[in-house]
Design a protein that fits this description.
- By secondary structure, this protein is α/β, with parallel strands linked by helices.
- It has a domain of about 230 residues: Rossmann fold (3-Layer(aba) Sandwich), CATH 3.40.50.
- It has 12 helices and 13 strands.
- Helix 1 crosses helix 7, helix 4 packs parallel to helix 5 and helix 6 crosses helix 8.
- The structure holds uridine-5'-diphosphate-glucuronic acid.
Length: about 350
């Protein structure tokens, strides 16, 4: 099966890892757009990779033309860092919702399958011990808590996509990443406070010998999934053998890689101290607690426990994660501390 894939936001964490995997392991053509290309060294120049530097909110004709031309559309352009949800909520709405809605409508118009990134954040402050795609409530805070504009934008798109599907107008799969980690997650060398997700934020703190800041004490928990497991799930979704992924929502996460943010900080200090040049980090580093209002601003609210049910992914995709937490963290550290890939630029608006 030779597919033509349209990948918007190809230079992001997910997009760059997915592109590389596809080019190495499948005979598919990837048509890619992003505002930057610094993470695409492994892809640029490949015969099956067509890259255009551009902005989906400006280069709309290119996007529409390629939706028409391709078989599967994967729109990964989004702001996905919580600090930005609080500081620039309208940018989040305009990019994550409005710009992506246009792409979804192009998919409806040209009858193309869309594989769309929802998010673990749609479950919000639900207190269940694990989140189920079909039965869990989506629980968001008050309007003044602007953190939720991301979850709300994503949730509304989930509902729009679902409605098009129910109306027989769209073939889709929604996937919900639960804290994916790995090489190229965020740019730790140009890190601004709050511009990274927690793992890369902490690695950057340690490298710069800054205090690690635990927001509200760090007892909140996350489950981390290694990117190779995530890409394995995405490939199964894109291949869609026998239509097994169509019109489903999949949590893609690792329920067993569950730990508190404080434990994550301690694990990182321990693991980084094994790398040359970092032997003394445990003595040099301080792990401190900071209030969320001071760290993010007053529009922040958090998620205490977030564990995915992955039964749907097991049942319909035959997928299960295989990388344990320590291995996932070690492979990520090898990338950031050993290969020292020199990325530059502000990744805020790049793909997810
Ligand atoms: C993330 C982001 O919204 C998205 O990247 C994504 O859609 C989703 O969740 C996901 O990947 O599942 P969150 O897990 O809250 O949300 O994002 P992080 O910035 O990685 O923060 C994780 C936790 O660490 C939060 O509780 C945060 O308060 C805490 N944190 C973060 C700290 O304690 N210190 C820091 O310096 C940074």
């Amino acid at each position: 099966m030779s597919l033509k894939i349209l990948l918007l936001g190809a230079n992001g964490f997910i997009g760059s890892n997915l592109s590389e995997y596809i080019l190495r392991n499948r005979d598919w053509s990837v048509f890619a757009m992003d505002i930057q290309s610094d993470k695409l060294d492994g892809c640029l120049g490949h015969k099956n990779f067509t890259f255009v530097e551009g902005d989906i909110t400006i280069n709309r004709e290119w996007v529409e033309y390629h939706v028409k031309k391709c078989d599967v559309v994967i729109p990964l352009v989004a702001i996905a860092t919580p600090a930005t949800y609080v500081r620039e909520p309208l940018r989040v709405f305009e990019l994550d919702f409005e710009a992506n809605l246009r792409v979804v409508r192009d998919c409806v118009r040209y009858k193309k399958r869309v594989v769309f990134p929802s998010t673990s954040e749609v479950y919000g402050m639900n207190t269940e011990s694990e989140f189920d795609e079909e039965t869990s409530n989506l629980v968001l805070g008050p309007v003044a808590m602007q953190r939720w504009i991301y979850a709300c934008s994503k949730q509304l798109l989930d509902r729009v996509i679902f409605a098009y599907g129910e109306g027989g107008q769209l073939d889709y799969t929604l996937f919900r990443p639960f804290n994916w980690i790995g090489p190229r997650l965020d740019n730790i060398w140009a890190a601004k406070e709050g511009s990274s997700r927690v793992l890369t934020q902490f690695i950057g703190n340690i490298i710069r010998r800054e205090n690690i800041q635990l927001v509200d004490g760090g007892s909140q928990r996350r489950c981390f999934l290694y990117i190779d497991d995530a890409i394995d799930a995405l490939i199964r979704i894109i291949e869609n053998k026998g239509g097994q992924a169509s019109k489903h929502i999949f949590n893609i996460g690792h329920p067993k890689n569950d730990l508190s943010i404080r434990q994550l900080a301690e694990l990182l200090v321990r693991m980084i101290s094994r790398y040359p040049g970092y032997e003394n980090v445990a003595n040099e580093m301080k792990i401190v607690s900071v209030g969320s209002g001071d760290y993010y601003g007053k529009g922040y609210q958090d998620i205490t426990v977030r564990v995915p049910s992955i039964r749907n992914a097991e049942r319909y995709l035959g997928w299960k994660p295989t990388t344990d937490l320590e291995t996932a963290v070690r492979k990520t550290l090898d990338y950031y501390l050993v290969s020292k890939h020199p990325e530059t630029g502000d990744l805020d608006m790049s793909g997810m």
